[in-house]
Amino acid sequence: MGLKLRPLPPYFLYPLLFLFTIWITFWIDKAFQLNLDQYGVYPHKYKGLKGILFSPFLHADLKHIFNNSIPLFVLTSFLFYHYKSVAWKILFFGWLLTGLGTWILGRESYHIGISGINYMLISFLFFSGIIIGYYRLVAVSLIIVFLYGGLIWYMFPIVDRISWEGHLSGFISGMILSFFYSHKLKEKYGNKNFVKIYPEDEEFLNHFDENGNFIESIEENSEKEKTLNS
Fold it and tell me: What percent of the chain has pLDDT above 90?
């Protein structure tokens, strides 16, 4: 009886497809010397608008694409696992907003690479978790800070060859999308608590009056509440 292979779950499949697409594009570009950089975002020129769609697929060299690949896989996996109901919308609108922001803010040079999308995802995942407040999503926010908090410096012009404008545009785009979609996502989690209160915790909390004073006897606390409320 042969082994039956199960299909990959979407939160692994889609990130792998993204990686495959940018790597195959990179290989074709370099192998056939197509000079696809000309399809990147070129700010303030109408011809540069096509880069909004194409620039995330283009990378300058092996180091460039490798540095973007691991964050792309991790971040899109988080997105499709924790925010699957809006994941495609986030990618679509985030893609457009990041590219448009780069076109508006950028220096007059070709801007290429998917790092702007990575910054958009970092921003969306961080702010959404904080706004929604559900403990699993807050944990994702904290993981994002731990893994990629140091990247915030690359949203500023500290290295000439890096498109800090693309990073900044991505970060702002993710923030905007998080505020827009988080309020809708909040309905999904309803009144789920950030921290679960267990019965023994409730009993312990009953030993404190409304002013935060500790009272040994719960009955004494109840009598005091009656007195205060009469």
Answer: 73
Using an 8 Å Cβ cutoff, are 79 and 87 in contact? yes
Least confident of 6-10, 169-173, 212-216: 212-216
What are the residue ranges spanned by the domains of the chain?
Answer: 10-189, 199-229
Residue 197 above 70 pLDDT? no
- For the record, the structure tokens of 26 come out as 């990179």
Whole-angstrom distance, CA of residue 112 vs CA of residue 40: 5
From residue 109, alpha-carbon distances to 40, 48, 77, 105, 163 in Å are: 9, 9, 32, 11, 9
CATH number of 10-189: 1.20.1540.10
Instruction: Please say whether the beta carbons of 99 and 51 come within 8 A.
Output: yes
**Sequence-ordered list of residues with C-beta below 8 angstroms from that of 145, at least 6 positions apart, any chain:** 126
For tokens 């007059």, name the residue: 108
Buried-exposed string 193-202: b where 16+ CB fall within 10 A, e elsewhere: eeeeeeeeee
Summarize pLDDT for 181-192 with one digit per residue, the tens: 988 888 776 555
**In angstroms, what CA-CA distances link 24 with 16, 27, 29, 66, 208?**
12, 5, 8, 13, 64
Q: Phi-psi region for residue 190, left (φ > 0), alpha (ψ -120 to 50) or beta? A: left
Single-letter residue type at 63: K
Q: What pLDDT, in 10s, does the model give residues 30-46?
A: 999 999 999 999 999 99
**Identity at 95, one-letter amino acid code:** W
Q: How far apart are CA 99 and CA 52, in angstroms?
A: 4
